[in-house]
Structures are given as C-alpha cells and as structure tokens.
Write a structure and sequence with these properties.
This protein has 2 helices and 7 strands, in the order H-E-E-E-H-E-E-E-E. By secondary structure, the protein is of the alpha+beta class. Strand 5 and strand 6 form a beta hairpin. The chain starts with 6 loop residues before the first helix and ends in a 16-residue tail after the last strand.
C-alpha cells in the first residue's frame, strides 16, 4: 500500500485511468463522456482509504457495447493486467480491471440506461492526513 499517496493524487490517478479506458471506445461510437468530478472514500484497511468515482460514456444508438467491453478486456489482458469478467445485475457483460496497486480497480460494463458504458473506479489505497474525516464528497 502506498501510504505516501495523497487523496488528491489517488483521485487524479483513478480519473486518468477512467479516461484512458474511455479513449479505447471507438470515436465513431462515443457521443459524450461524463466524468463525475466528485467521488467518495471507502476503507481499504483500518487506516487506509481509496477514492471511488464514476464515468459514463454515451454511445451511438445501435452500438454493440459488449464487443467494446470485450475489446477493452483484451487490451488490458494483452498488457498483462489482471482482468476478470462476469455479468452486471442486468445480465450485461462486465469486466473488472485490477492493476497491482492495492485497492485500485476499474469496472466496465453496459450502463443501466440505454446506450451507455459505465466505468466505476477505485484508486490505490492511501492514508488520510490527521484530522480529515473520510465522509462526504471528495
């Protein structure tokens, strides 16, 4: 775990990875990218947290989202990154990208709304400075 990473650095790393994943979506399919600027902190351990955020990509009507998610999966597997797959609650194909840093992960799947791809992110773990309460938006 990286106790030297600040929450701001962890957030920036997770958001940069969200955009890296979004950039793998074919340009002719992506209509818009909506990256949420605020997220929440979740516990990694008793003393560490990770930042969790969200990006939604709206895609053109008729886009084959599962093919895109599978291409993203193949991209990260080819880089040697651990990737697992299952289905989301709507039975859509979903992947989880797990870089080696503890706490860091990215979940990519068809969104709950039509014509959307969702990217949920979790940053590497970090230690909050003394006196910073982990509740609320970050």
């Amino acid at each position: 775990m990286n106790g030297e990473l600040t929450w701001q650095e962890a957030k920036a790393k997770a958001q940069a990875m969200e955009l890296e994943i979004a950039a793998l979506i074919p340009k002719d399919a992506a209509v818009s990218i909506d990256q949420k600027m605020k997220g929440v902190l979740l516990s990694c351990t008793k003393t560490q947290h990770n930042w969790n955020g969200f990006t939604t990509i709206t895609v053109a009507e008729g886009t084959k989202i599962e093919q895109i998610v599978r291409a993203i999966e193949a991209h990260y597997q080819a880089k040697g990154t651990k990737v697992s797959a299952d289905s989301n609650p709507n039975e859509d194909y979903r992947i989880q990208i797990d870089p080696p840093a503890p706490g860091e992960n990215y979940i990519v799947s068809e969104g709950l709304a039509p014509n959307q791809i969702d990217i949920d992110s979790g940053s590497p773990c970090f230690t909050l400075p003394e006196g910073i309460y982990p509740g609320g938006d970050f």
